[in-house]
Write a structure and sequence with these properties.
11% helix; eight-stranded antiparallel β-sheet; Pnp Oxidase, Chain A; 12 strands; 2 helices; two-stranded antiparallel sheet
Length: 220
């Protein structure tokens, strides 16, 4: 047995920043091709649901059933890849000509957030966020006059999700992978899939494929 110790050196952890966003338009319920999302400014995870639903009997609380949790997010950016136009409700009529208010194509999304601590700063590690079954809601875009200082306009999208199946778990729309807790070789292999390599295009694998990939090294 040992006594709990608070604030050990190297355990002052924090999260900050967002980078390396990737868009994966859905095709036949898969995410076969990823494209870089430049100008990413923010990513906010917004789970909802999972509310307690009390049931009473014999004048007392008999059951407290927790509802299903849903995952939502907000993506902020200065711009977006051309492939996101259909996800944003636009359809191209001719080169450079698009019509809005169209059906929004579902997509997958990946980004990194930075993990820091008191000894390594923001070089401690990072967290990969993998989001499935995304649908972007219409969002307000504001254009304002240019004055003495030019401020780039920031866009944002509220994202709702449809979960995908995971063997042995409830369906989910959100995976997190922490770089400091997984095998570095397997993480590199996964990132070659997510971000592409000299031998393959970027794609978003489903959770069961990721579980198999990350488990092989642990069982070796």
């Amino acid at each position: 047995m040992s006594k709990l110790v608070w604030d050990k050196v190297g355990e002052h952890l924090f999260e900050a920043g967002v980078e390396q966003g990737v868009l994966y338009p859905m095709v036949d319920n898969e995410y076969p091709l990823g494209v870089a999302w430049n100008g990413l400014t923010s990513f906010s995870a917004s789970p909802s649901g999972a509310e307690p639903n009390a049931h009473w009997a014999d004048n007392r609380k008999y059951l407290n059933i927790i509802g299903t949790e849903e995952f939502g997010a907000t993506i902020g950016a200065y711009t977006y890849p051309d492939e996101f136009a259909e996800c944003n409700g636009f359809k191209e009529l001719a080169p450079g000509v698009s019509v809005g208010q169209q059906a929004r194509k579902p997509f997958g999304f990946v980004c990194k957030t930075i993990l820091g601590n008191d000894t390594e700063g923001i070089d401690h590690g990072y967290k990969l966020h993998l989001i499935y079954g995304c649908s972007a809601s219409p969002s307000e875009v504001e254009y304002s006059t240019i004055g003495e200082d030019v401020e780039p306009g920031e866009m944002s999208w509220e994202i709702s999700t449809t979960p995908v199946s995971v063997t042995g778990c409830r369906p989910t729309a959100h995976l997190e992978i922490v770089s400091t807790k997984v095998n570095s070789k397997k993480l590199k292999a996964l990132e070659d899939i997510l971000f592409g390599s000299s031998n393959s295009e970027a794609r978003l694998p489903l959770p069961d494929e990721i579980a198999e990939l990350m488990a092989e090294e642990a069982n070796a």
